[in-house]
UniProtKB/TrEMBL annotation:
Gene3D superfamilies: 3.30.70.920, Winged helix-like DNA-binding domain superfamily/Winged helix DNA-binding domain
PANTHER family according to UniProt: HTH-TYPE TRANSCRIPTIONAL REGULATOR LRPC (PTHR30154:SF53), LEUCINE-RESPONSIVE REGULATORY PROTEIN (PTHR30154)
Keyword set, alphabetical order: DNA-binding, Transcription, Transcription regulation
Record Pfam families: AsnC_trans_reg, HTH_24
InterPro entries noted in UniProt: ArsR-like_HTH (IPR011991), AsnC-type_HTH_dom (IPR000485), Dimeric_a/b-barrel (IPR011008), Tscrpt_reg_AsnC-like (IPR019888), Tscrpt_reg_AsnC/Lrp_C (IPR019887), Tscrpt_reg_HTH_AsnC-type_CS (IPR019885), WH-like_DNA-bd_sf (IPR036388), WH_DNA-bd_sf (IPR036390)
Residue ranges constituting the HTH asnC-type domain according to the UniProt record: 3-64
Protein name from the UniProt record: Lrp/AsnC family transcriptional regulator
Species, as recorded: Mariniflexile gromovii
Length: 147
């Protein structure tokens, strides 16, 4: 699907606030609400818009730790890990990467004891390294048109 300037403007609005009404988006980009609806539907059908999420505060929900954990999988353990990682509630995001490690995970944990227990589960799959997240520098940046 070719994204024209109007589609990019609609995507910008949705990335800033996915709860904006089609009427409000239409006012901002200069087209009617039905036209916005149709463009959004086409972008969803094309797989450009993958979904809509609610962003929550982990700290206010009782979580005390966010960490980045890398895993260098043992021989023969990568494929089993790739299936197992999907079952961990702690894992917010998981990426298969190039380099010395095979996996990077962003995890959310209740406390240090939870971190210790979680790492104990991971070490059967490979060598781990853990970094505790102190704060976000950037978050949920908008995807912009290629230049």
């Amino acid at each position: 699907m070719n994204l024209d300037n109007l589609n990019w403007k609609i995507l910008k609005c949705l990335q800033e606030n996915a709860r904006l009404s089609n009427a409000e988006i239409g006012r901002r980009v200069g087209i009617s609400s039905p036209a916005v609806s149709e463009r959004i539907k086409r972008m969803e059908d094309a797989g450009i818009i993958l979904g809509y999420k609610t962003v929550v505060s982990p700290l206010d929900m009782g979580y005390q730790l966010k960490a980045i954990i890398t895993l260098h999988a043992f021989i023969g353990k990568l494929k089993p890990f790739l299936e197992k990682v999907k079952t961990y509630d702690e894992v917010l995001n998981c990426y298969r990467i190039t380099g010395n490690e095979n996996i990077v995970m962003e995890v959310l944990l209740k406390n240090q004891k939870h971190l210790e227990t979680f790492i104990d589960e991971l070490i059967i799959y490979g060598e781990t390294k853990t970094q505790i997240v102190l704060s976000h520098v950037t978050r949920y940046k908008e995807v912009k048109p290629l230049k």
